[in-house]
Amino acid sequence: MVTLKGENIYLRALEPEDLDFVYCIENDEQIWEMSSTQTPYSRFLIKQYLEHAHKDIYEAKQLRLVICSYDDATLGLIDLFDFNPMHRRAGVGILIAEEKERGKGYGAEALELIIKYGATHLRLHQLYANISEDNMTSINLFENQGFSKVGVKKDWNLVKNTFKDEFLYQLIYVH
Q1: Helix (H) or strand (E) holding 104
Q2: The pTM of the whole model exceeds 0.85
Q3: HSE of 85 in the Cβ direction (CA atoms, 13 Å)?
Q4: Is 55 helix (H, G, I), strand (E, B) or coil?
Q5: pLDDT value at 170 more than 90
Q6: pLDDT (tens digit, 9 = 90+) per residue, 28-51?
Q7: Which one of 35, 46, 135, 168 is at 20 to 30 Å from 156 when CA atoms are compared?
Q8: How far apart (Å, rounded) are the C-alpha atoms in residues 172 and 20?
């Protein structure tokens, strides 16, 4: 699929072989704040999830793709969630797993690819992202890809006994 291939990375569907990678990400407490996770996931649950990951986005209302380099290194994940075909919108989230791989443009390229995919294959009217007030890396990433901050959810997330605001970012496609 040409839409999901970039200059340095490509996006692919989840495979059963991604079990260890997804397990590590879902159980990394350092990123639980971004995903609103509070408890660890078992290998069994991740395996079940991977077995059902083949479901169509119209049925599952979400799509999780793996971000890979052309030497087949697994770099991260990008998700479309809360897919609503009637209103032609979806949420988007992204993670580059290893800190040493961040800041190299992989996230920007993956986001650019998913934006194009949303327009050409899903005929989306808009994408949105929820970003913590102190996640400057994500704020810069989404703003650089044309997303605009359209709202603030005050005291939205409780993190280590401190409430944090969450920003709502939106990209409206120009058709």
Answers
A1: none
A2: yes
A3: 9
A4: coil
A5: yes
A6: 777 656 656 667 778 788 778 777
A7: 46
A8: 36
Q: Closest by alpha carbon to 118, among 91, 151, 86? A: 91
CB atoms within 10 A of CB 66: 20
Question: What type of residue is 48?
Answer: Q
CA distance 28 to 171: 29
The values of phi and psi at residue 57, to 5°, are -60, -30
Tell me the residue ranges of DSSP E strands in the chain.
Answer: 9-13, 63-69, 74-84, 89-96, 126-132, 148-159, 162-172
Check if the beta carbon of residue 6 is closer than 8 Å to that of residue 109. Answer: yes
| Residues 6+ positions from 49 with CB-CB distance below 8 Å | 22
What are the pLDDT digits (tens) for 64-123?
999 999 998 999 999 999 999 999 999 999 999 999 999 999 999 999 999 999 999 999
Tokens of 159: 């993190």
Q: By the 8 A CB rule, do 11 and 67 touch? A: yes
